[in-house]
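As a point of orientation, let us examine one representative protein, giving the amino acid sequence and backbone structure tokens.
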Amino acid sequence: MSTRISITRQDRYRFLVDFGPRLPSAIVDEPPPLSDGAGPSPPQLLAAAVANCLAASLVFAVARYREDPGALTATATCDISRNEHNRPRVTGIAVRIALDAAAETLVNLERALAQFEDFCTVAQSVKTGIPLAVTVVTPDGRVLKS
């Protein structure tokens, strides 16, 4: 299995990302002062990919037990620092997943939490080179996994 995209430069640091014939294209751009910030930056796309994959994996893990976690929300923070050559690098990603459903209504939630990260292709691949912290919280903010 493989996935393929193509990008075409539009202007300055703005690129058009083509995901293929059945999906809409997207603009990716660098923020000012490099460019106009007309779309998400590459680090934002990376953070979105990790957060989306983890959220989908949690839904999958819970659904395996015929349960529904409800409308959960995943928030990703991508830390960027300069390396020894003064080049910006992603130095960490933290993802916080907030459940909409009360944990007590999900009988098998503990089992799902123990395995959902293993289902996430993107996070498992990224964390080999970038520190990744994942937290799952209840609607009232109680930490279930960290």
Summary: The beta strands are 6-11, 14-18, 26-28, 73-82, 88-98, 132-137, 143-145.
